[in-house]
Write a structure and sequence with these properties.
Elements (H helix, E strand, L loop, with lengths): L2 H25 L2 E4 L5 H9 L7 E5 L6 H11 L6 E5 L5 H4 L1 H18 L3 E7 L14 H22 L4 E12 L2 E9 L6 E4 L3 H11 L7 E5 L6 H11 L6 E5 L5 H4 L1 H18 L3 E7 L14 H22 L4 E12 L2 E9 L1
Parallel strand pairs: 2-3, 2-4, 4-5, 8-9, 8-10, 10-11
Antiparallel strand pairs: 1-12, 5-6, 6-7, 11-12
């Protein structure tokens, strides 16, 4: 066969291959992004031993406290990433408010039943925008009183509904000490003002303060699920791949974007998002779903991996369209996380949904 014949054959093969790739691109328009492979196996060893975790953490989304709360949970409470984490504006206020209490309990019920949680950590913080910030209060003492009493009230509500749960209450703050800034955590006990100061690692605290307290603005809002199996991975992905470090607000709720689709929760969810967009001037939205999500019934609910990918991707596209209509100036990125077997090893993956 002459050179022209070989060239023609290679051309046709290449053309057919291109058409196949194009069809796949149009049908399942996403690309694989894998976070740091050296970090992945370490996360797997810690995280993928079972579907149970001991602890549920509920805190605010404020980006100034994201790193500090993580350091406090790891260094002081020693729970590492073995916890589910619901992060919503105002932290526990949704448990107090009648119009949001049932929705919040529905989410907590999912986690208690799915992951067999027996320990609840509730964290509020001072200068919280959901309360109007520190300027709303007459004094630091009054702010401490109001937030502490709010935590105690929530503990009483939770004790009545979940009598077997161990519940710990904490109040975080960012304070000036001389010319430096440090984070503090107060453990809130039963009686009024009966609390003690706990300070997380001061070296880390100072580093976090330098990184996160430069202003009240952040560029990015992340919305993801609370599933403890994905907590470390999502953080690694945001830091290593998207390079946004801790300069982001992070709403973490069971089912990720489901509350934006469901009519009964859409308005409440948008109210929270409005707070963050107006308070922190967010201009970038990152929406992350994940496979084997309990809010969807897990992977076993779907006939195949392809069907699960299709349903979750379609939900992300649907939510992006809703956001584009309501917030046309927002940059929006969609991702779908999964935990997969590769030979005898397990790795996390992110599909970028375009």
């Amino acid at each position: 066969m002459g050179n022209k014949g070989l060239q023609k054959r290679f051309f046709y093969v290449g053309y057919i291959f291109f058409i196949i790739i194009l069809i796949c691109y149009v049908s399942f328009n996403h690309s694989i992004t894998v976070a740091n492979a050296e970090i992945n196996p370490k996360i797997i060893e810690d995280r993928d031993r079972s579907n149970d975790c001991n602890t549920l953490v509920i805190s605010c989304v404020d980006f100034r406290f994201v790193s500090f709360i993580r350091v406090f949970l790891t260094e002081n409470l020693k729970i590492k990433d073995d916890y589910d984490h619901i992060a919503i504006p105002g932290s526990v206020t949704d448990i107090i408010r009648p119009e949001t209490q049932k929705i919040t309990f529905d989410k907590i019920d999912i986690l208690l039943n799915l992951h067999h949680v027996n320990h609840l950590v509730l964290i509020e913080h001072k200068d919280c925008g959901a309360y109007g910030g520190s300027k709303y209060f007459d004094s630091d003492e009054k702010e401490t009183e109001v937030l502490s009493n709010g935590l105690r009230r929530v503990r009483d509500i939770l004790n009545e509904k979940y009598p077997n749960l161990k519940i710990d209450l904490f109040l975080a703050s960012l304070k000036n000490v001389g010319n430096e800034k440090f984070y503090y955590m107060e453990r809130i006990y039963g009686a009024a003002f009966n609390h003690s100061i706990i300070m997380a690692n001061t070296e880390i605290g100072q580093m976090v303060a330098e990184n996160c307290d430069h202003s009240n603005d952040c560029n990015t809002l992340v919305i993801s699920c609370v599933d403890f199996r994905f907590v470390s991975f999502i953080r690694v992905f945001l830091t290593e791949n998207l390079k946004i470090k801790d300069d982001y607000d992070h709403i973490a709720i069971p089912g990720s974007v489901m509350d934006i689709i469901k009519p009964e929760t859409q308005k409440i969810t948008f109210d929270k998002i409005d707070i963050l967009l107006n308070l922190h001037h967010v201009n970038h939205l990152v929406l992350i779903g994940h496979k084997d999500c309990g809010a969807y019934g897990g992977s076993k609910y779907f006939d195949s991996d392809e069907k699960e990918t299709e349903v979750l991707s379609n939900d992300l596209w649907r939510v992006r369209d809703i956001f584009n209509e309501k917030y046309p100036n927002l940059k929006i990125d969609l991702f779908l996380a999964s935990l997969k077997n590769v030979g005898n090893e397990k790795f996390y993956y992110i599909d970028r949904i375009k």
